[in-house]
Amino acid sequence: MADLRRLATRKRRRASTIVDQNVCFTGTDTEDGDSMVPETPPSRSWSRSQSRGSSRSTWTNQATTETGTETSAIPSTETSVEPSVELTEPFTSRSTSAQSDTLSPRTKFIIGLDYGTTFSSVSYIKFDSARPPPTLFGAQICSITDWPGVDSRARNIPEVPSESWYLGDRFYWGYGARQGYAKLLLPGNQKETRGPREELRRTLVRARKDETEAIKDYLRQILKYSKEFLTEREELSEECEVELVFCVPAGWPAKAIRTMQEILLDIAHELNIGTLATPFVLNEPEAAAAYILEACSGRKRLSTGEVFMVCDAGGGTVDAITYRVCQQHPFRVEEVVPPTGSNCGSSYANQTLKHQAIEKIKSTAYESLKGPSFEYIIEHDIMTEFEYKIKRGFNPADGLDGDEVIVVHGLERNERLGFGHNTMRIKSLNGISKLIRQQISAAAAKGLTVETILLVGGFSAAPILRSHIETEFEALKIIYPPKGLDSAVTVSHGAVFRAFNKSDGPKRIVQSNFGFLQLELYSTRQPAHRGVSPIFNAIDGKKYGLVLSKQQQFRTRNWQVFKMEEELVIHQKIWVSDFDNAQNHYRVNAPCNKGAEVFGILQIDLEPVKNEGLLELRSGPEGMFYEIHYELAMEVDGRNLAVKLFYPPGGMCRAQTQLCIAAAFIPGTE
C-alpha cells in the first residue's frame, strides 16, 4: 500500500474537486488499465469545488448501470481534447438523500465504531426509521459486549483489544491475540511511532501481510461478531437499514480516512450487514464532546460562544482540538484552532516497560527457564500485571514509597537487575502537556481564551494523568466524563449520538480533488504542453500531448479512438488527489499532480450504440477506426458522488455509477 500522508501534516487545504477523464486510444494497456499510447503517463482533468477530500468505495466503484435519461445539450468549452484534468470554481453542494430505494427498511440501526490504537468499541441504537425517537439520550445507546475470549468475570466489558496475532495459518484477534497497534500503520511514518511501527512491520512481513490487510483482518472480526451479536439479540436482518459511523483522530489526512472508509465498506458488503446507508465520519474529540456535554444527564453545561478544548487521550493517539460552542440544542461546535495530535498515549508507557523488561531478563540465563516461553513471560507475567493492576491505579499523590513487584515465573532472584530506584519516566505525560499548550497558544494568537479542558479517552481515567493535568494547568477548569460512564465507550456512543442528528453540522466542504483522465491535441501554444514530447497516434495520424485541461464546470467532453476490430468498451477512471496543487493540462506524473490515484471506474460497452447506427467509421494511417466523443458529468449527491456518461454529448445517459465520498468531507458533515 502506498504510504499515506503523515498525520503531522495538518495544513488545511483550499476547497477543491478534480474532474478527470480517462483515455483509451491505442489499445495498449497501461499499469492503470487504461488503453493509451505506450509509455505515456496519463493525464487528468481536475475540477475544484468547496468540498475537499474524496473517497473510494471498492464495492461501488464497479456498479455501473445503463439508463435512457435524456439531457439537454451543454455547450462544450474545450478546444482540444487530451488526457487532462478539469478545475471548477469552489461550490457548496446541497445535501440530498443517500438512499436510492423508494422505500427504506422500517428498522434502522446506527452502529458506531471507535477503532482505537489499544482498545476498540462498538455502540449502536435500534429504532423505527418511520417513527424515530424525537430525542436521543445517552442511556438509550447500547454497546456490543461479551467479546470472544474475554474472561467470564468480565463478560459485560464493552471494549476489545485492538490486537491481532498471526500464528502460522491461524489468526487470533482481540482478547485472543497479543500483537497490537495496527492503527498506527494508517497515517504514515512518524518519528514518535518509529519503534512500534518497525516492530509491527517486521511482524507483518513474517505474516506476509501489508498494512491494509492487517487492519482489515482485525476489523472484519469486529464487524462479524457485531453482526452476530445484533442478529441474536436485536433481530438484525438483511432488510434492516444500517448506517455505519466511524471515528477518526482529529487531523487525520484525507487519504487515511478514505482508506478506513474503503476497508469498512468492503467488509460490510462482504458480510452483508443489512441494507447499507452512506457511512458517516466523525472526529473522535467531537464525538466524545457531543456525548459528554449533551447526551449525558447531569452534564456540565457550556454556554454558547464559550471556547473549550477537548483532549482525547487514548492508548495510542492523543488529540487536542479547540472548539467554540455554536449552539446548545443540538450541541454544535466550530473548530477555532486546527487540531494537534501525537502518538503519546498510555501504551507508550507499556512500550517503555516492555523494553526495560526485555533488556533485564535477557541479561539472565532466561533461556534455561522452565515452563512458559520468553514471549509468554513478557506478555502474560509482566505486561498484563502492569496494564491491569499497576498502571491504571497508580497515583503520584499517594507517594512513591515502597516497591511494585511483578512476579516472573522461573526467574532467579538477582537484586543487581532491579529497575533502579523503582521508577520509570513516562514521556507520554510531557507529550500531552505540550499538545495542550500548543492549543492554548494558538487560541491566544486569535484573541481567544481557553477556560475549560474536557479530558476524555481511556487514558483520561488514569489518576496519574489527571494529577498531571491538574498540576500543569491549575488555572483552567477540567471536566471529566461523569462518574459511572465507561470511558471506553465515550467515542463510540458519541458517534451514534451525533449521527442520529446530523443537522447544523460543518459546511459541506470536500477536501480532495476528483478528476477524469482526458485526451488533448498537442499544441505548443498551450504552456503546459511546452517541453513535452508529443505522441504520434498511428490510428488517426494525429499528435497528442498527455496533459491536463482546465474547465470551469462539472460537465466535460472526452473522446477515445478504437480500431475497427477492437471491443468498444470504455473504462472511464475517476481519479483523486489530496493536494491543492493539482492543475489542468499537465500530465498525471507532473510534479503538480503528484499523488493522484485512481479511486473508481465507470464502464460502458458501446456495442449497443454501434448497433443503433450512431457510430461513424473514419479512415486513418492504419485503416478504419472509430473516434467516439462523449460527455461526462459529476454530481455530489449527499455523501456520494454520481458519475454519468452521455452519448452523444448532451444526449442520452448511457452509464452511471455512484461512489461513496463520505471520507471526502470534513468529519461531522451531514
From TrEMBL:
GO terms for cellular component: cytoskeleton; plasma membrane. Residues 72-82, 90-103 have a biased composition (Polar residues). InterPro entries: ATPase_NBD. Transmembrane segments: none annotated. Residues 43-71 have a biased composition (Low complexity). Residues 21-103 are annotated as: Disordered. PANTHER family: CELL SHAPE-DETERMINING PROTEIN MREB, HSP70 FAMILY PROTEIN (AFU_ORTHOLOGUE AFUA_3G13740). This is HSP70 family protein (AFU_orthologue AFUA_3G13740). It comes from Emericella nidulans (strain FGSC A4 / ATCC 38163 / CBS 112.46 / NRRL 194 / M139).
